[in-house]
Backbone:
């Protein structure tokens, strides 16, 4: 008899993981059909990047194993108590990528443990919908993506292609437009803007000429995206160029959500169907004085009066854990 | 007595170099106050990249020395016949960069040889103006830049900051917009376009989903810019998305030239002053059916009736050699 089958149902747990580009977070939660509020997080651990494209396969696997064991240790449960694991991982769009990561997890857990690998946007959606896969999540952090599910399980996404492929509503997109505006003001192609002083001061550069060297010294997208708060400050102070950049980003993000809503028919045949729009990422939540997330929602409800914003109260790793619970319960019902 | 001073004036030569991002070209020409037509190129040699940012300082120096010695060998002149060297080099914007390269040349030639290092755009301008630094050159190849000189020697440039800093009229910019259009058509954010079939076929990809992997597999800008002919073909075939991308590029390039013209006052006080616009680079010259260069000129002459297009008949290395002659003759006159 397998050790796992001896485990008391009350002790059964699930693991939810958020494998982002800079860190990996794992939470351990009890496996319950109805979770109390607040959600009982039994253990939580953080580790470094687990993206195999960034750190290589061996390190990625080790990081995943380590962060799960730490979360379990903190929860005081044995590994045999784990009934399901759900990992939301950035950049895992291809079935091939997901299959590879599933195989790593398969080496760690016995075969009766249910394993799920999802795009990190799906875990983010679940963090706002409490594990229910319905509606659309809009993420705008360094990158941007909209990812949605219809009630009958169809899924669709838009954007998420990175800067070369036009994610202009992302933090990277906003900051790159601001950099461009500074260069254009400097060489006479565009109007003067407060962005020049703000960005040069923030980067400790003495002239716009130095911006080229700074920009290409390090190709990290996140390093560029870090400048978004400068753009917001200038917009709040009334700078027209900064306001245009943010308004363009709002329009772009709204178009991204609309593409998903249309393809899935989330608004119903009459266009008034109710569905959540889960807002995630620094660009959408961080700036109260120029609230990009709220403006995107304002734009969307004009077209879809049944759309309502949800700002998650729990982190994506918890969303992944909720997905693990729900996927497992569904599978059990089918069996 | 220095060996160089023995050299007969009739035998005196100059070297012109075009140090691009993929190759380095050197030509050897006679030092004459008035050059005959066609220009007498005594020797010509090609070598690999001499950009120290790409290949490192030692290799860059060796490449420069080698290509100059080969051109001299072909010309049948001795090194002592060289009176001046002008090198147009991409990315040498900072005086610090120019100083470093000057020092390399200084190690190769005796102190009486005049040495000049210029931005490659200046050599390109000279290739159209036959060595006279007046007017504006517009380059659009992988990147884009406008660089101009007024009659009284003031200089100014616009764009040239690379893709993150908004060189949207460049080959990279055009192709990146086309890629974005394919992704937008695929995920529902944008209209369908012929670009999808054209680009996927050219890249041997079976689906737009695969474009993300292809794009980020190699960060080379030139690899993206290679797709410009596909965009032109689709535009010629009537595709609206492709036509909009090219029209936007035309507008962007015209704004880039205008910024330089305005800052230098090239059009004179009455706005009708005559000045050349030298057109250089694959984007501006390669496509007769949808002539981006001609459309930029059409746009410019509406504002500046005295502007006239020049399509260089000689290569930038010859432009650099002409500059070497002119700089040297000017210095001699001053002395």
Residues:
């Amino acid at each position: 008899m397998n050790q796992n089958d001896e485990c008391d149902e009350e002790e059964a747990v699930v693991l939810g993981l958020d494998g982002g580009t800079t860190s990996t977070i794992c939470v351990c939660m009890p496996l319950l059909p109805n979770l109390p509020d607040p959600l009982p997080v039994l253990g939580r651990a953080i580790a470094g990047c687990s993206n195999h494209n960034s750190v290589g396969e061996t390190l990625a696997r080790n990081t995943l194993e380590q962060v799960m064991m730490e979360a379990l240790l903190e929860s005081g449960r044995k590994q045999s108590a784990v009934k399901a694991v759900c990992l939301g991982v950035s950049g895992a769009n291809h079935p091939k990528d997901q299959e590879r990561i599933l195989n790593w997890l398969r080496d760690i857990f016995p075969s009766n443990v249910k394993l799920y690998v999802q795009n990190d946007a799906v875990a983010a959606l679940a963090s706002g919908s409490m594990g229910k896969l319905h509606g659309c999540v809009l993420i705008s952090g360094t990158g941007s993506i909209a990812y949605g599910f219809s009630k009958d399980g169809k899924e669709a996404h838009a954007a998420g292609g990175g800067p070369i492929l036009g994610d202009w509503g992302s933090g990277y997109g906003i900051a790159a437009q601001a950099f461009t505006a500074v260069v254009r003001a400097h060489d006479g192609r565009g109007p003067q803007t407060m962005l020049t002083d703000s960005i040069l001061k923030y980067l400790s550069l003495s002239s716009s000429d130095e911006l080229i060297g700074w920009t290409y010294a390090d190709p990290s997208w996140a390093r560029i995206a870090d400048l978004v708060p400068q753009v917001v400050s200038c917009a709040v102070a009334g700078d027209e160029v900064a306001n245009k950049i943010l308004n363009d980003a709002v329009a772009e993000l709204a178009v991204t959500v609309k593409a998903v809503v249309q393809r899935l028919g989330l608004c119903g045949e009459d266009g008034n169907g109710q569905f959540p729009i889960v807002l995630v990422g620094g660009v959408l939540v961080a700036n109260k004085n120029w609230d990009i997330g709220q403006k995107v929602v304002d734009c969307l409800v004009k077209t879809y009066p049944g759309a309502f914003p949800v700002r998650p109260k729990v982190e994506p790793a918890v969303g992944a854990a909720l997905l693990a619970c729900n996927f497992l319960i569904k599978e059990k019902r089918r069996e």
User: Anything to note?
Assistant: The radius of gyration of chain B is 22 Å. Residues 3-133+314-334 of chain B form a domain with the Nucleotidyltransferase; domain 5 fold (CATH 3.30.420.40).
